[in-house]
Every structure is written in C-alpha cells, then in structure tokens.
Amino acid sequence: MRPAEVAAYCYQEALSLVLENEAGRNTDDFHLDFSAYWRRQLENAPAVWVWLGRDQSSRLVAAWHGQAFTLIAENEDDCQSWLNHRFGPKKERSVRSALVVGLDALPSPSDYPVNGGKLRRLIAKSAPDSLAIFDRFVSSMSGNAVVVLGGKTLDGEPAWAPVIVSDGISSSGGKSRAGALRGFRTSRKPPALQVLDRGVKRASPTLVDAYISRLEGGLGEGLAAKRVVIFGCGSLGAGVAKILLQSGIRRMVLVDPENLGWENIARHELGGDSVGKAKATELANRFTLMYPHVREILATVDSWQSLARRDPGVLTEADLILSLIGDWNSEAALNDLQRAPGGAITAPILYGWLEEHAGAAHALAIGKAGSCFRCGFDTTGGATVPATKWTSKGPNVCGGATSVYGAVELAPSQALVASLAIDLLLGRASAPVRRSWLAPRSTIGGLGGRINAAWESVYGDVECGGRMMAAPWPQKVDCSCSSP
Q: The THIF-type NAD/FAD binding fold domain covers which part of the protein (predicted)?
C-alpha cells in the first residue's frame, strides 16, 4: 500500500470514530475496555495500588498513603502485611480509611468525576444505596482520602476507578463552593453538601493482584485458602514451591535442615548470595519479597520428624503435604506415620522424585486408603519398575552417588509435581494417583541410558518419549496396607 493510501485510510478510520462517538453509537467501547479510557490523560495523576480481589460491594477499607503511591487493601492487617513483605518491616506505617463504592454501571468519559458534586451525582445515579456511607465518609475525612469506584465491564470483569478526594478547590479549576453554601457554619453543614467543598482528581490504578487475570479461570482464588507443607527444598522442591505460589497458594511451610551449596546453584531457585545459608529460610525470605500478596511463608530448618514432634499441628492442618526429599528411609517413615491407625495426618501426601539424569520423574499422591508409598519399592528403596535403565551412576559426592542434571532437564519434573499438587488441592484428582514424565528417548540414550522395557510392558509404549503419562501405582499383596 502506498503512503498516500495509508494516510487516507487512517483519516477515514479516525473520522468514522469521531462521528460514531458524536452519535453515541460506540459507548459500549468505554465499558468494554474501561481501564484504558479511565487512564487516558493521567500522566501525572496520583498512583493508587489496589488489592481488593473481586469484591466490589460498598464498604470501608484501608489505605496507606505513601510518597510514590497509595495502597488500598481490605483492612489494616492486609495493608501492613503487603507492605512488610514488599519493602520490609517498619515500625510505624499509618493506615487510614478509604471507601469502595460498587456501581451498577461504570461511567462513560463524560461522567468521570472532576469535582465533589459530580462524584456525588454519579453515586446517586449508579449506587443510590451507597450515598449514606459516602456522605458519612466525606464528612469525617481529614485531608486527602481515596474513594475507589468499582463496577463490571461488558465482559463481566471487575474494574476499579480510584479518585482522590481533597479539601478546597476542585480539580476542574473551579473555585471553592464555600461561598455557595453561605448560611451554614462549617460544623453544621449537611453531609450531603460537604462534598461540594471537596476537590476530586482521577487516580491511576494499579492492581497488585492482577496476576489472577493471567491464570486459568478460578485457579488463583481456588488455591488462596489452601495450606501446603513442603518437605525438601532442593532443586525439585524449590521450583515446585515457586510454581505453587505463582499459581495462587498463599500459605506455605518450607521444611529443610540443609544449607545451599555451590554445586546446586545452576539448578536451584537460589543463587550464590544464598550459599552457606539455610535453603528453607532463604527461599521463604525471597518468595515473600517476590509475592507480597502471600499470607504466610514459614521456614523450618529442621527435619520433618523433628517438626512433627515439636509442632504436629503443622502437619494436621495442612491441605496437602509434599515430600520431595528423595530419601527412602525418611519417606518410608512418613508413609508409615500417615498409615498408622488413628494417625493425625489426614491430608494426602504427594511424593516426588527423579531418576538418573532427570531422565524420568514421578509424582505420586498417597492417601489414607489404597496402595501406599512402599508398594512400588523393594525393601531397600529401589523402584520395582523404574522407567529408565542406566549403564552407570552419577559421581560419588558426600559419601554417595549424585545425579547430574541441569535446569533444563529439571523443568518438566517441577511442572509434573506442581500440576498434580494443584489438581489434588482443587479436587480434580484423588489419591492414590501417579503421573510420570519421561525425557525424549534420544536424550536418555545420549546420556548413556535407555527406557526400561519392563516399564513399557506394564504401562505402554512411550514411543519417542518426551511425554507425561498416567502410570497406575501398584498395590503389593504382601504389604501391610493390603491387610484388612
């Protein structure tokens, strides 16, 4: 297309838009992408960060007024928690009230409030039941305050439109209305008239929980109330913990007695600045800073056995326990504790482990009934039917063989375990259940291994590999879990 034709096309499109706007035929656009229109011409507007979820009912909430932004949250505890997580604890952070007003319909640009009178008329039109709380809020405010208007877009998504309500001259440039209200002493002025003295300025909203909009429908909210406990904060456990937090988990306990070593920084969420420090503590500190909306991330620098003796409530109150230790003796003992008659652990336990070179990985959920963790292993912890076979083991380090793999090989294993954890928490899967990941056949072969023929005879041909598959967990007839 020639430049002149491009210019003519753009001119016609712009002219059509203006004419449709004047005729009132494109008002739906203002409510479809409301936030984009609300933010127009707000380059120097005050910044308001909003953390209110999807509840748009009219109510008093909490506000922290900082130099760079104002944070709006459900209550003072939420305000303080978010700020402490994001910026570190501080002795004094003053929190004041703000107001949320839920509108029946979002305003068009011509109805955007530019002064106190226009704001009140908007509320009277689109939220008449909220006028009383609005008038009380304005009459009691001291200095600047935030009113957050909320409503649904045409797609049904919540949108937020904050305004700063201040004393004196309105943002539209008009004079104070004090002269128009002669006859009333300041202290006797009716609440419905006090707002006319207030200036109103649109603010630029930032949704600090906007991550929810990028998740599968309902995922973040469905996981928000769940509590998970993770045993083992190594390369697998650290990555799984991060994925679960990114997916919406807000309560987590990390348990690991070990410190980070230099040998693991190429495949761990932590780096060189954490070497020699406790993995659980370092992860908790880092994740708290990264995800300030998370309610609680606790770290225990101890074994799970010591934790169970010292604070058994951590296990009994969990919705899901993940054991990513990769140690047979420790995990067999955990299995026995769960299956003990009258045992206090009611949550399913999700075990995760890797085979050599991360050529295969397994995620296994065990409950109070059915096959147990021991059913798929021999008495020394060897898998009854491993997915891969190897001509040699990894190098001997720290008194035993270690597996060689990097972040690329590890990533599918982390996704495998995390996805099953999410399905269990949301009720989309139930124990006992196992899922397995097998690397591409060529990758395994290039590292000196092969896919185990016995695995394929039991669970089916894996073809070229590079796939996730369901692999039913066996139940041994001579296992204690099979006894009536």
A: 222-420
